[in-house]
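Subject: for your reference before the review

Hello V.,

The reviewers asked for a structural picture of the protein, and I figured it would be easier to keep everything in one thread rather than splitting it across files. Below is the amino acid sequence we used in the manuscript, unchanged from the supplementary table.
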Amino acid sequence: MGGLTRVRLGYTPPPEALTELRHALADLAVLGLEPDPEAEILVGGRFDDADLDGRSLRAVIVPWAGIPERLAEQLRVRPHVDLHNLHHNASTTAALAVGLLLSAARGIAEADRQMRQGVWRGRMTEDRGVLLSGKRATILGYGAIGHCVGEVLTALGMTVDGIRRSNRDRLDDALARSHVLVICAPLTPETRGLIDRQRIEMLQTPRLLVNVGRGAIVEERALYECLRDGTLFGAGVDVWYRYPQEGDEAPVWPSEYPIADLMNVTLSPHRAGDGEGIEGLRAQAVCSVLRDLCLGRPCRPVDLDRGY
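And here is what came back from the structure prediction:
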């Protein structure tokens, strides 16, 4: 190869992660944080059209799970630029998904709230949780995260059906045999609104739903109404329909519906992919993809039509 590959980081890693990246790639690439019209590889999720029109650009790496919709649309008209994604946060996302399911099934969050008021929920009251052992779970999005979730649920005594997003007939069949739906899929044209009231009602009672994929995969009104009227026994949700924007002050509600008023849902502020050591894992994953690209080794890009 003639010279070092020019790489622009469109996000700012913590100093120790940036140092690790530069050290690991010193023989292959020069990494910069400022716009670079000669960059061959961009790392980030939000870029202007001018960044993506650089004459030397050949690849973009999104350094977190999932592809921003705007970036996907920008790259659809630039087919010469490959898109890559990371799965470094599979274990931490799976861990929170399982935690949300346990909370939904056993009412952990609500029991905590009531016990702080001196009420022993499930001991002084008739509230009972759902026994997960012996039940079946459908995991929508059976990639790295879904497989991790499936391993834990199997250890808890559950039967697991892992469903790829494109197989709707198999999804409906699996839902009809399951009590639990765990969503780990990315948001794509085929998954947007995929889980509506009809599909929620396909589950066997008592129904449980967990979403660590993207909020819009589940119809917003259907989620609220199924929780409110008891169609869903419980839910655990980490991904939402509304997010704080720069300059917003608390409170910022995650939905146009008053989901936060319902006691049978555990709310999480989109933090499944975060955790101790996550920036180190991100740096390692970015480094791995960059080395492959710099050395011309096979590195499967994202299929923009499928979204993964």
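For the response letter, the relevant points are probably these. The mean pLDDT is 94. DSSP finds ten helices and eleven strands in the chain.

Happy to draft the paragraph if you're swamped.

O.
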